[in-house]
From TrEMBL:
Protein name: Phosphoribosylformylglycinamidine cyclo-ligase
Catalytic activity field: 2-formamido-N(1)-(5-O-phospho-beta-D-ribosyl)acetamidine + ATP = 5-amino-1-(5-phospho-beta-D-ribosyl)imidazole + ADP + phosphate + H(+)
Matching InterPro entries: PurM-like_C_dom, PurM-like_C_sf, PurM-like_N, PurM-like_N_sf, PurM_cligase
Lineage: Bacteria, Bacillati, Actinomycetota, Actinomycetes, Micrococcales
Location of the PurM-like C-terminal domain: 178-342
Entry-linked CDD domains: PurM
PurM-like N-terminal domain segment(s): 60-165
Pathway: Purine metabolism; IMP biosynthesis via de novo pathway; 5-amino-1-(5-phospho-D-ribosyl)imidazole from N(2)-formyl-N(1)-(5-phospho-D-ribosyl)glycinamide: step 2/2
Alphabetized NCBIfam families for the sequence: purM
Superkingdom in the source lineage: Bacteria
Family of this protein: Belongs to the AIR synthase family.
Organism the protein comes from: Leucobacter iarius
UniProt cross-references to Pfam families, sorted A to Z: AIRS (PF00586), AIRS_C (PF02769)
Keywords: ATP-binding, Cytoplasm, Ligase, Nucleotide-binding, Purine biosynthesis
Amino acid sequence: MSENSSIYAQSGVDTAAGDLAVELMKSAVARTHGPEVIGGVGGFAGLFDASALKEYRRPLLASATDGVGTKVAIAQAMDIHHTIGQDLVAMIVDDIVVVGAKPLAMTDYIACGKVVPQRIADIVRGIAEACEATGTALVGGETAEHPGLLGVDDYDVAGAAVGVVEADRVLGPERVADGDVVLAMGASGLHSNGFSLVRHILAERGIGYADHSAELGSSYGEALLVPTALYTSPLLRAIEDPELDGAIHALSHVTGGGIAANLARVLPVGSWTEVDRASWSPLPVFRHLADLGGHSLESVEGAWNLGIGMFAVVEAARAERVAERLRAEGLTVWQTGTVSTSARDFTGFEQGAKGVDGGAVRLTGAFAA
């Protein structure tokens, strides 16, 4: 260690630990690199050969950025860190695929109170494995040590990615038509939203993350850290299937804001749909947490996905073929309703969200047992 590095370490920043963390993660990151990645790990900027985009008639770049929210507090409490790497990738690339885009490259950012090399390597290993599973090159990242701002065991993660889609292949409200079928895709758990409510409920009941839950068959922490499902690759294969060409009109990633609001964002203004609660049974983790908090499932539809991770709005004539294709990819898929453009009273409907003037959605009926 140089004298300058030693002086910096006295202030709480250990550059040698950062270097070790990079060494521990290099092989996992390298596995996400195809021939398009130039220069490997460690440069000031990641380089990605975009010459393949010349094959597009009019390539549009799609970008997204996100984190995993207060789910990191549970990872820290349980000392389990690799699963939130998948959460991070899923929250980003599954937003990119919503417009029909293929993710190309991603970068990550980890802020921590103290660099613990194996912990950082575990986080990045989870990120790299999810990038590899979704065909996304992890081309760069940053680990920043913030002593005095974050506790020694505290950290937060964020990332950004870019993808590409042909201009005339963009999915969205413009493609949605009267009579389209709405398909739901099952979630793996809470994914990465609504954890402030989860943590509040457990704290109110004096429940620790390491405590065992008979209802969940595991500790609370283990059940809550189930990583976010990855939808990108199955959806891209379905979109690119010649037999389904043009059948998928819009996709909605069910994240912050809940079920109705996220679906409303991808429907055209003036259209509406009703999501039939009886078409699925919410996962046990949602039922148990709602019971602990004294909430009805209906009252938490704006905070939790309740078992729906993604929606697809598809052409009615090929809806079952789309569903079969996605089931063959290992996804759980079911129909929740249809889209209508007929005039009606929108009282009780969610209409658009996050600045988007979209369609109208409401959930109806009672959940299946």
